[in-house]
Amino acid sequence: MHIREDANIAYFLRTVNRCAGEVLFCTQEQDQLNLKSVLSQFIFATLTKEPDILFGGTIVCKQPQDLAVLEEFLTEK
Amino acid sequence: MEEISGRVALLREMISSVSSIPLTEMDMNFQVVATNAPDFEMSTLFFSIDDMKNPQPVIEIPDLSAPAIFTNSLGISWLTDIAYKDGQAERIYLLGPVFLDGYSINQIETRLNQEQVSIPVKQHFMSIIKQLPIMTMSRFFEYGVMLRCAITGNKVSTNDFIYPYLKPDVPEDVVICDSGNSAYLVEQQLLKLIEEGNLAHAEARKRLVFSAEVGRLADGDNLRQAKNTVIVNITLSAAAAVRGGLSADIAYYLRSEYIRRIENAENLAKVTEINRAMMDDYVRRVHRAREANSVSPQIRDTCEYISLHLEEKLDIHLLASRLGYTDYYFSKRFKKEMGIGVREYISKKRIEQAKLLLRSGNDDIQTISDRLCFSSQSYFGDLFRKEVGMTPGEYRAVNVEK
Questions:
Q1: Are B165 and B53 in contact (CB under 8 A)?
Q2: Per the CB < 8 Å rule, is B121 touching A47?
Q3: Which pLDDT tens digit goes with each residue over B109-165?
Q4: Of B159, B176, B353, B400, which one has the fewest beta carbons inside 10 Å?
Q5: What is the model's pTM?
Q6: Contact B263, B227 (CB under 8 A)
Q7: What single string gives the DSSP state of each residue in B198-212?
Q8: Do B53 and A41 touch (CB under 8 A)?
Q9: Which chain B residues are closer than 8 Å to A10 by Cβ?
């Protein structure tokens, strides 16, 4: 799953904090950010200036039920 | 409100002539009214991450009486203030983001190396982080004082600054002293208030403590710097309290206790809280000691001597001869002034010391009994039980349980 281009990143990150399991942001360059870590959240936030990386990366939920929590921010494209 | 906006705009311009720290004005829906932040969207995003969540807590404080300070776990700080009209909050002002020292940036870099992050992403992130201004805490707080003045026309002390993530019933001080000669004067005045046991100390402190730094006591580490500053303050305060009439053993026991608490403090706000509590504690104790002092300097001196020599043999003859008195005259005078006999007083002091050793040390009971010159462990035990209502072993067990 990818981040939607119209997603509110601040709201998305706050919602990630409500997820039961880990939520990872992975890129083709082998970045793997655990979005429950504060530092990773900051790194992720700065990627709004690098849309290719931000929207090209994938969101991986370790707990399948968290996908429903984040549904409104994610897209399969 | 236009008048306030105008004053803040002037302040923004003045600050920007010497620093790159942004000053933003927002309406109560967090829509930007005016800003000089080069990248306000990123600043807002940073502000919304982490333990701060969003600026909402600021507007939840009814009638914000002073600027509020936020520092997130990356060491990025903001100062916020609110302008009111007819009791209604109308504008939010945000000063920051800013690093209050370069150490935080180094720490971020170190932490970043432990993450699974590619070089381009690392470089991109650090380039944004390094764009944030760095300034001293004192300068930052001075801007906060100026901002409040621009909004309300009133002066505010940095002591009054609010740390919204602390318990609201614990007002905080700011751990700052002035630099150079004025630091010496402020320090001397504060210590004099402790020495006098002046209960108006807290009020006086607000007037006295201002700006700048006591000197660089820890390279780059803001929290360490604050801890070192307060530890120096604790040491000076303890000495002032002794000069003011507090017994040396109490003053130095408190010193150790407060230094221990400072070392365990996790953030600047806690350090400031402990600093304030420490100073208030010393003032109150000196005040009590002075009030109780209808005791002559000679007998007070004897009491201090006893306190400092509890682990040595003490007898009436030794104490009397220190003052040039006969044993009989000394005993009579001591009892008259203290309301208690010399031997009984020494025993009580030794029991107090034993309680301290039982609480905080690892010595066994026999060792404590020997250290405090009790003739036997059973005599020590009997006396302890009589004074405290439990045996030394029970006392230690209860203390450990706590």
A1: no
A2: yes
A3: 888 888 888 999 999 999 988 888 888 878 888 899 999 999 988 888 777 777 665
A4: B400
A5: 0.54
A6: yes
A7: -TTHHHHHHHH--SS
A8: no
A9: 44-45, 48-49, 54
